[in-house]
Amino acid sequence: MLDHTIADIRNLRVEFQTKDGPVVGVEDVSFTVNAGETVCIVGESGSGKSVSSLALMRLIEYGGGTIAGGEMHFHPQDGADIDLAQTEQSLMRTIRGNQIGMIFQEPMTALNPVFTVERQLTEGLRLHKGMTKKQAQARALELLRQVRIPEPERRLAQYPHELSGGMRQRVVIAMALACAPRLLIADEPTTALDVTIQAEILALMDRLKRETGTAVMFITHDMAVVAQMADRVVVMFRGNKVEEGTVEEIFERPQHNYTKALLAAVPKLGEMRGKPLPEPMRLLGQEDQEIKPIVGTDAPLLTVKGLTTRFAVKGGFFRRTVANVHAAEDVSFTLMKGRTLSLVGESGCGKSTVGRSILRLVEPLSGSVQVGDRDIIGLDSGDLRRARQDMQMIFQDPFASLNPQMNLADQVAEPMRNFDTHRGAELQARVEMLFDRVELPRSFMRRYPHELSGGQRQRVAIARALALNPKLIIADEAVSALDVSVQAQVVNLMMELQADLGLSYLFISHDMAVVERVSHDVGVMYLGRIVEIGPRAAVFENPQHPYTKALMKAVPIADPRKRKSEKDLNFKPIPSPIHPMDYAPEPSHYREVSAGHMVLTTDSGY
């Protein structure tokens, strides 16, 4: 395979026109992509990485941007040299999809909901390659097999809403590959996916690149994915390229301070080996700080026994209940004061349902939940309201959980006003103290949620959760939507607060590296049941259940010398959690492997 350049971007500058004058999205970026290589563009939100890819596709004009300077040379099959910055949109239409394919971040918005999978896959083939209907159908079927979609003949006739997230993303990849493009641009293609599906899709893209010789421009903020995929890495910061090098150079010998800070903030799976207790991360610039492990206590705070939550599936003319979704099935665990228990698993495994059932945001079908000496399930609405002072929740999306019309000081004060715990000057002083605790400047108190970044909003949500001095905080994917460096700061903040205030966390997440960093104990969930639970070191270093083992194998590690191969990944498709009305599941039985380390012996379906 000849090493020749497919795309060569020189001094690209992109501007957006706003009422206050032009805003620069990309200031000055140059890099090349060669045949058969993967170039990863990394950086945090707002660094200009997606803007670069949209400029290359010339889709930036449709988003209000203009290419204000620079050249973008592209070499199609016939060896010509086209400067995409100067190309007419009519010619771009023949290049887009045909010579340059794009995989977008959100598969549901990239697919048209009113057309079948077949129609969307064959459209480009008939348009660009002049195929007949029959030829295009045969090629579409071949593409679905290539991206390993089960029962491809059936899938062709389906619509996007009938497929799962991972399946939809595979269809988007198949569409991007349909015309065998010279260059494939993948913009955060696995951000919205589970660990196991992400691992399969990364392995799939790597295999297709090797087989077809396509050049890949891969945009991501996940350093573990970069370590898994990249040949070369371009690091972007505030619209500029700050560093470029091979994947080994960037990970092992970073030169720029921003790259060093980014890598220091990445939790690496396996870092906590030999450390029985969680401890905050050592970030750049904090080398001299003493890091203390968080001990916790042995006094139980939350005891959950046999918690079962089901949702009715209605159907037929009279909207009768025809089946049940078994979201949480016979879940039991104990959380000690001052400790963190993490629930991990993939989307739909029931971990968020468990968190919400404990607070009775959804009503469980059966089971008991004890917080201290109170039985939460048996409380009436007045007592439940009082009990909720001790229990708070931090949600995944801080923008959705904050009120856009209230300033931040009022939002943090609201729980204290509701429960009448503080008034007047005392209330004001406590709000100021909470802003100090989450390391936000007091000048932010007059601001509104839209004036803050994602990480700052999540800090406000944490301050509000702390307002009533709760004993238990349920954090539902509280850091998964944040950038790497912000995520590290928020995780450290939560751990400092735990050490200072003796908080107990039920930490719900699918990010295994973060879970390893923060947890005393870990419960692995699959199809509504806890399949394995125990001290974090035992579960991570000696996994016993086949599902836990598969999950651990799938997690990419932020080290280019520990890449996963496709043969490591052999996942079973997850069966449906919907069962008919007369279905009676078996109770959960466990065997003890070592002290406190329990593994499910009931058939979990995996």
From TrEMBL:
PANTHER family: GLUTATHIONE IMPORT ATP-BINDING PROTEIN GSIA, TRANSPORT ATP-BINDING PROTEIN. Keywords: ATP-binding, Cell inner membrane, Cell membrane, Hydrolase, Membrane, Nucleotide-binding, Repeat, Translocase, Transport. The complex is composed of two ATP-binding proteins (GsiA), two transmembrane proteins (GsiC and GsiD) and a solute-binding protein (GsiB). This is Glutathione import ATP-binding protein GsiA. It comes from Litorivita pollutaquae. Its main location: membrane. GO terms for molecular function: ATP binding; ATP hydrolysis activity. It is an enzyme of class 7 (translocase).
